[in-house]
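User: I'll paste a sequence; please echo it back and then give the predicted structure.

Assistant: Echoing your sequence first, then the prediction.
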Amino acid sequence: MSLKAFMTKEITALPSTATVLDAAKFMTDMNVGSIIVTDNNRPRGLVTDRDVVAKVIAQGKDSRSIKIGEIMVSPVVTISEDKDIIDATQIMSAHGIRRLPVTGSNGKLAGVISLDDVLLVLGKEMQNIATTLKKELEKEQ
């Protein structure tokens, strides 16, 4: 199952030059807890709402002047869009992450696959298997 079919194409990303205040407003508007930091649409890092609190607010820094490139977690773990869902789950497990930026063949950000996306896909597959088994059992009766 190629990631292209399951990844979210609505990407929450900002350039590394965006301010922390811009990122906080963006996360609030988009109702997300993290954003991908990009340079030339290539993933470079990740900033979470926790990063904003711990690295800026709790230290009394000015969120209007600090750039997200200064507080991002980097390098960011990514996966190529030609990989499959099993590859994605292995990478997520190995790195203990729930969201994985997906890159195209040009290295640019193409989407995001989340653990929620994976669970939805696998849930549908399990439902298909259960339906098939049920039909087979009904034939036997």
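The chain has one domain: 3-140. The beta strands are 13-15, 34-39, 42-48, 79-80, 99-103, 109-114.
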